[in-house]
Automatic annotation (TrEMBL):
GO molecular function, one term: metal ion binding
Keyword annotations from UniProtKB, A to Z: Metal-binding, Zinc
PROSITE patterns linked: YIPPEE
UniProt gene name: LOC112281471
Pfam families per the UniProt record, alphabetical: Yippee-Mis18
Protein name stated in the entry: Protein yippee-like
Amino acid sequence: MGRLYLIQLDGRIYSCRNCRSHLAQCDELVSKSFHCRHGKAYLFNTVVNVSVGPLEDRMMTTGKHTVADIFCNSCQQVVGWKYEVAFEKSQKYKEGKFILERYALLP
């Protein structure tokens, strides 16, 4: 197994609750108005130190989306998902963005 390289972010950040790996800068936060099965969730433009899982279609409160779960590179915990395709025109702004679930984060 190779050596694990993690990106260290500067400034105000969100980290993995389980292992404290840096996941996103506060400046990349788009919205705190999202919800997931575990409670609140945040939408980000970019995240770091995550791996993207396989694509799957999910029916969400805002319609059908193709998404992929994202996992912390350090501890392998699911920390959210990535929007790949939004089928509804009004939801296209989410494509390519990331959801981090609040329960998995340390502010």
